[in-house]
Amino acid sequence: MDFFKKNTSGMAFCLIIALVAWLLGKQFAIIGGPVFGILLGMVITLFIKDKSRLDAGIKFTSKKILQYAVILLGFGLNLNVILETGIQSLPIIISTIATSLILAFLLSKALHIPGKISTLVGVGSSICGGSAIAATAPVIDADDEEVAQAISVIFFFNVLAALIFPHLGSWLGFSTSSGDAFGIFAGTAVNDTSSVTACAATWDNMWNLGSATLDKAVTVKLTRTLAIIPITLVLSFIQAGKAKKENKAGTSFKFSKVFPFFILYFIAASVITTIATSFGVDSSVFSPIKELSKFFIVWAMAAIGLNTNIIKLVKTGAKPLFLGLCCWGGITLVSLGMQHLLGIW
Fold first, then answer.
1. Burial 258-269, CB ≥16 within 10 A → b, else e
2. ∠ at Cα 100 (269, 190), nearest 5°?
3. At CA 125, angle to CA 119 and CA 128, rounded to 5?
């Protein structure tokens, strides 16, 4: 009962914002529900004088609901399908992820960007945008303003990619009779799922390819999503090492406090989907759970927006934006270079 008394008001308030953001995201897919959630939250919080009654529920939503979203995301991953059709893109995926993470690390040192923001931008750029940020934020204990800043940076380059890449692909001479080459490019070089979908669907429409490009891009994107697992586990070990060093003498250190157990549930969800589909269960059975996962992310983003100072965000946004530009540019060039090297285009 104490939990409900403490959290219900804040959670319900975030839920109302999330419902509006979800509907807006459906209407404007290139922007997406998570971005609308953050933006609405940041604007609405400016008009709230006292959030004390809402604080506990907002905090629970931004932390725990975010983790539940990642767990549910696992039900959208059929590991057999990914292994069968995603193997071709694996060298490109590994190269682009490595490029983004290395650039984020080097630039954070050179430009004195806070480590947590640079980690979120690097991971979000290289893996799967908002979902990767959602998975990484609890592991590195990032605060809501850092998450909001990273999401904002990722969103900006998502929109640019969705608008520019189909024309770039045409100019570069990607095959217009098959969706494979551009599908791999969209799946490896575009950050968030919504923008990957928009980008690939545009290519299909440009060249009357049905859904060939979209199918390829989404499979590659799902393969990228699996990188959440090793990245978050490595980050948890790094975080554990830092926590142990900072730990005061005479107190016990517990690794369980920093280990991302929700990632294990994410893996379990993926395994359940894989086993079920291998026994003949239609993958569409898991579609409602996948949609719920996406909504939970929007719900959490609304809470994060409510805890974010938009004025401070704008004032401190130049360096993270430049970092995002470098990561995005690096990923794009490496994706194109690797495809050319492998003879895909």
1. bbbebbebbbeb
2. 65
3. 105
Give the HSE-up count for residue 175: Cα atoms under 13 Å, Cβ half-sphere: 16
* Per-residue pLDDT reduced to its tens digit, 245-263: 776 444 555 656 656 788 8
Rounded Cα distance between 304 and 10, Å, is 12
**Of 128, 132, 205, 219, which Cα lies nearest the Cα of 166?**
205
Count Cβ atoms below 10 Å from residue 158 Cβ, excluding itself: 29
Q: Are 153 and 320 in contact (CB under 8 A)?
A: yes
- Checking if the pLDDT of 91 tops 60, the result is yes
Radius of gyration of the chain (CA): 20
Residue carrying structure tokens 């003498």: 249
Distances (CA, A) of 20 to 13, 39, 53, 155: 11, 11, 22, 19
Cβ 209 vs Cβ 114: under 8 Å: no
d(CA 331, CA 95): 8
Interatomic CA distance for residues 13 and 28, integer angstroms: 23
Hunting for tokens 């949609």 — which residue is that? Answer: 291
Using a 10 angstrom Cβ sphere, with 0-12 exposed, 13-18 middle and 19 or more buried, the burial of residue 224 is buried
240 CB-side CA count, 13 A: 15
Angle in degrees, CA 138, 126, 31, rounded to 5: 80
pTM score, whole prediction: 0.81
Nearest Cα neighbor of 226 from 118, 77, 337, 334 is: 77
Question: pLDDT band for position 116 (50/70/90)?
Answer: very high
- Write the DSSP string, 279-332: TT--GGGGHHHHHHHHHHHHHHHHHHHHT--HHHHHHT-HHHHHHHHHHHHHHH
Taking the C-alpha atoms of residue 168 and residue 124, their distance in angstroms, rounded to an integer, is 22
